[in-house]
Amino acid sequence: MPLSNTYKSPVYARAKAITSVIFIISLLVTQIIAWGLLERERSLEQHQVRNEVIQFKNRLETILEYSSTATYTMALLVENGLLNDDFDSLSHQILRQNQFIDAMQLVEGTVITKTYPLEGNESVIGMDISKTPAHIRDAAESIKRQQLYFEGPFELTQGGVGFVGRFPIMKNSQVFGFSAVVIKLATILDGLGLSKSGVTDEYIYQLVKIEGEEQKLLFQNKESFDSGIIAKTKVPLGDWDIHVKLRNPGYWKRFMSFSILGLVFSLILSVLVWKVATQPAKLNMLIDLKTRDLKVVNEQLERRAEELEQYAHVISHDLQEPLRMVVNFLGLLKDRNGDSLDEQALTYVNHASEGAWKMKNLISDLLKYAIAGKNSGKKELIPLRMVLDDAISLLQNKIDESKAVISYTDLPTVYAVKIPLTQIMQNLIGNALKYASIDRAPVIIVEHLSLDDEWEIIVKDNGIGIPSEYYQEVFNIFKRLHKEEYQGTGLGLAMVKKNVESLGGRVWVTSQINVGSEFHFTLPKKSS
Ligand code: ADP
Q1: 432 CA distance to ligand 1 centroid (A)?
Q2: Which are the contacts of 404, defined by CB distance < 8 A and separation ≥ 6?
Q3: Atom from ligand 1 closest to the CA of residue 486
């Protein structure tokens, strides 16, 4: 497969699909978790601000509680005619015990008649509160409620910003006036533990009083309390709205970091999935590459082997003619001039013709070997018995000489080519006769086994046997174990192997020294 096509292979397409699905799912899951986290964090922070606004309100009401007791005490005394000239000493007492009150006032009708301490507050004496709409409106509110009601924050006549809380004094069911307290901004801020800006590290605060169209703010900040983590509550004592806002909400940052973490996690997961999913494709690609290399090498080898075989064929063929001449002329030399040759010369001539005969056999076997396996015919169903008979008749002389016994039971019909199959049987039986033990006449048995798709043919003898370390090597060309004692070319078994393999089978040997050898080979039962 060309490399460019690898990425279009089905494995890659599947890997792409799996990776995309895993990426989308893991991204979705992590983002849903991140979103859940965001909601949870936001509600936690919201809860925190709600708590803070309640605490702020509690702190404020605790501070104002002092004024409540003070004004109530004063009003009670006036109503019962018990406050004569001791306004100052009573106020002094009250102020001493109530740290969050800056001054006491007595309002008779709508005019401020007394104040304590007088010092610094002189300007309010004689002031008619009915002249200022805000004063009179909030004073009326305290009458309506029959309890302490605060006005402010506003610019005090005596200077500075502060609050005035008024409690109505009733005499004979008529409003006699008010007992009042003045609380300065600084006192309130002190009590709340805040600065003028109403901003701490954590929160931003605001206290608002709506007076008609006007909004009066306690803290000097321009913060909008419409968005963000905010909470609001009302304080009835002065009809104030308290706003608290979380200065640096963390829920969004935490959401972002978890969300990015989720994205990174999904990416890493996808890369891993991609690696695992594309593994088979990469392996296939490697196998393809290697197979291609092997094919090329194989083709080269086959070409080389063919060239060599052709070469061997030509050489052995061409050598036969001059060799036949050498043999013939040596024969002529012996026949015609035998009498005139001395004994020495005759021995030479005999050696020469023996050598020439050996060479002739070798060349003839080489030629057979070169041709072997070149299926010189079509495969067909052949009764093995017929082939065995042919081989036996070719070896009949040797069989008779050695008094060999060849036995076989009913043999199968095999799918093969006749000539190479005959060569196989001839070589194996020929060797069984040749490598017979000197102690006994050869007994050769031909048997078969039926395997799944093939026949296994076994040629057994009772000969000299083959040492186990040579079981493989005896099938190599020119491998001979008994060079001195037996004549041969070392090509017989190589030829058997070549023929068996060309017919689609395998060949091997098992043996016991001095007991005998078993040559096994397989052949297909039918064409595949
Ligand atoms: P050769 O021409 O020597 O017989 P082969 O290729 O036929 O060559 O056999 C290779 C070697 O295997 C022989 O030299 C012999 O030593 C051994 N061999 C072959 N067949 C048998 C057998 N039936 N029993 C014992 N040895 C054998």
Answers
A1: 8
A2: 398, 432, 433, 436, 441, 442, 443, 444
A3: 3
Determine the average pLDDT of the residues in 228-234: 95
CA of 466 to the centre of ligand 1 (A): 8
**Residue 490 CA, closest ligand 1 atom number:** 8
- Give the SS3 label for residue 343: helix
What is the Cα gyration radius of the chain?
A: 62
Distances in whole angstroms, Cα of residue 44 to Cα of each of 30, 39, 48, 206: 21, 9, 6, 22
Pocket test of ligand 1: the residue of 444, 493, 509 to mutate, having most ligand atoms within 8 Å of its CB, is 493
417-461 pLDDT, tens digit each: 999 999 999 999 999 999 999 999 999 999 999 999 999 999 999
CB 13, CB 276: distance < 8 Å: no
Q: Which of 445, 481, 519 to mutate to test the pocket of ligand 1 (most atoms within 8 A of CB)?
A: 481
User: In this structure, which amino acid lies at residue 215?
Assistant: Q
Instruction: Give the residue from 197, 165, 163 showing the smallest Cα distance to 178.
Output: 165
pLDDT in tens, 192-219: 999 999 999 999 999 999 887 888 899 9
Q: How confident is the model at residue 46 (pLDDT cuts 50, 70, 90)?
A: very high
Residue nearest to atom 19 of ligand 1 (CA): 431
pTM of the full structure: 0.53
Contact status, residue 222 vs residue 199, Cβ threshold 8 Å: no
Residue 47 tokens read as 């809860």
Sorted by sequence, the CB contacts under 8 Å of residue 475 that are 6+ apart come out as 493, 494, 496, 497, 507
Question: How buried is residue 239: exposed, middle or buried, by Cβ count under 10 Å (0-12/13-18/19+)?
Answer: middle
Distance CA 373, CA 302 (A): 13
Of 262-276, 287-301, 356-370, 415-429, give the lowest mean pLDDT range. Answer: 356-370
What is the DSSP pairing of strand 443-450 with strand 405-408? parallel
Give residues with Cβ within 8 angstroms of 473, minimum separation 6: 479
Identify the residue whose tokens are 């002529």. 332
**Which tokens sit at 361?**
């056999």
Token readout for 324 is 């036949």
Residues having CB within 6 Å of any atom of ligand 1: 431-432, 435, 461, 463-466, 474, 479-482, 488-494, 517
Element (H, E) at 451: none
The alpha carbon of residue 20 and the mean position of all alpha carbons in its chain are separated, in whole angstroms, by 13
Region of residue 466 (phi > 0: left; psi between -120 and 50: alpha; otherwise: beta): beta
pLDDT higher than threshold 60 for residue 5:
no
Q: What is the DSSP letter of 130?
A: G
Question: Does 6 have pLDDT greater than 60?
Answer: no
